[in-house]
Amino acid sequence: MKKIVFTGGGTAGHVTPNLAIMAKLRSQGWEMEYIGSKDGIEKEIIDHEGIPFHHISSGKLRRYFDLKNFKDPFKVLQGVVDAYRLLGTIKPHIVFSKGGFVAVPVILASKLRGIPVISHESDLTPGLANKISMPFVSKICVTFPETLKLVHSPKAECTGLPIREQITQGKRSRGLQLCDFHSQKPVLFIMGGSLGAQRINAAIRQSLDALLQRFQLIHICGKGHVDPSLTSVRGYQQFEYVKDELADLLACSDVVVSRAGSTSIFEFLALRKPMLLIPLSRQASRGDQILNAESFERMGYAKVLYEEDLTPDTLLKQLSELQDSVSAVQERMAMNPFGNGTDTIVSLIEKHRRTGI
Ligand SMILES: CC(=O)N[C@H]1[C@@H](OP(=O)(O)OP(=O)(O)OC[C@H]2O[C@@H](n3ccc(=O)[nH]c3=O)[C@H](O)[C@@H]2O)O[C@H](CO)[C@@H](O)[C@@H]1O
């Protein structure tokens, strides 16, 4: 029996692409297990899939000063020891890493055990965890063609993003029913990444009356961010985080307002949802979402509203411009050159796995 270990986590963007690959490998008879962190969202997502989950010690690697920077390298070292032990027991033929800090110890331990690793980068610019791991992996898969120029490695290949098939199988009628919506008014889908985005939540709620004149609203707010005072507003449906219902909610949505996490925006593209992207600012990140969003704007799939320009007025203005160009955007999306990365990655997994163990 062929066996694979998946890793990756912290936030859902580093986990959900794994689900697409898992479904395909499962249908080909592979056995699989997952190594993640104790407190990341990956445990919840992977438990839901019924796949054995093991957690290891993991530490955040920061580019800025923080007292935890002195403690975290020891947590990473402990993570390498934990992962080394687990890999010795599981004995996989290959490891697939979707990035995030928990992936670093797993990749180092795989190297020590001589197990090949394929890593995948979702964002246009490689994250720190993937950068550190590059020398130790057999193959680096990237999502954006622009990333190949930044990675400069013969190991790199543009495979696109693995997209869960389940997300493309939603039903508009089920989505409308779930929200108690009708089909006479367009539906606006709002998502601040897997954790929610407080700035976006606030801007939407400040503009709620004006938005409700034009749309029915599905708002994924993030854990703990549902506003209880608004739960009975007709046409405004809030969720903290959604799992299986996401496909139906997207199927009934016409336009999207979102952060510009790579996993989400490629899902919206696959579903041909015109998007207004409000990327996480450079103050709060390395600026990867800004580059993701600008790349989608250049391709004509999205409009970008920078966080520093976000006000109820700019939000409404940009949304109305996007609504006017919905058909043109959808035509461009239909011609998009990005395929679903799942099949290419599954072929690479077959090609690079160890044989004879
Ligand atoms: C704050 C932060 O660190 N953000 C990063 C993180 O974002 P984040 O984890 O938010 O990642 P994305 O927005 O790219 O992906 C979120 C994933 O969660 C799913 N989803 C989301 C909400 C929900 O209720 N249900 C659900 O299933 C989405 O469909 C998608 O598959 O990883 C991304 C991918 O590397 C990066 O581009 C982001 O910059």
TrEMBL record:
GO terms for molecular function: UDP-N-acetyl-D-glucosamine:N-acetylmuramoyl-L-alanyl-D-glutamyl-meso-2,6-diaminopimelyl-D-alanyl-D-alanine-diphosphoundecaprenol 4-beta-N-acetylglucosaminlytransferase activity; undecaprenyldiphospho-muramoylpentapeptide beta-N-acetylglucosaminyltransferase activity. UDP-N-acetyl-alpha-D-glucosamine binds at T11, A12, G13, R164, S194, Q289. SUPFAM superfamilies: UDP-Glycosyltransferase/glycogen phosphorylase. Its EC number is 2.4.1.227. Residues 187-336 form the Glycosyl transferase family 28 C-terminal domain. One of its GO terms (biological process) is cell division. It catalyses: di-trans,octa-cis-undecaprenyl diphospho-N-acetyl-alpha-D-muramoyl-L-alanyl-D-glutamyl-meso-2,6-diaminopimeloyl-D-alanyl-D-alanine + UDP-N-acetyl-alpha-D-glucosamine = di-trans,octa-cis-undecaprenyl diphospho-[N-acetyl-alpha-D-glucosaminyl-(1->4)]-N-acetyl-alpha-D-muramoyl-L-alanyl-D-glutamyl-meso-2,6-diaminopimeloyl-D-alanyl-D-alanine + UDP + H(+). Its main location: membrane. GO terms for cellular component: plasma membrane. Transmembrane segments: none annotated. It is an enzyme of class 2 (transferase). Gene3D superfamilies: Glycogen Phosphorylase B (3.40.50.2000). InterPro entries: GlcNAc_MurG, Glyco_trans_28_C, GlycoTrans_28_N. It is a peripheral membrane protein. It holds the Pfam family Glyco_tran_28_C. Cell wall formation. Catalyzes the transfer of a GlcNAc subunit on undecaprenyl-pyrophosphoryl-MurNAc-pentapeptide (lipid intermediate I) to form undecaprenyl-pyrophosphoryl-MurNAc-(pentapeptide)GlcNAc (lipid intermediate II). Belongs to the glycosyltransferase 28 family. MurG subfamily. This is UDP-N-acetylglucosamine--N-acetylmuramyl-(pentapeptide) pyrophosphoryl-undecaprenol N-acetylglucosamine transferase. It comes from Paenibacillus cremeus. The gene is murG.
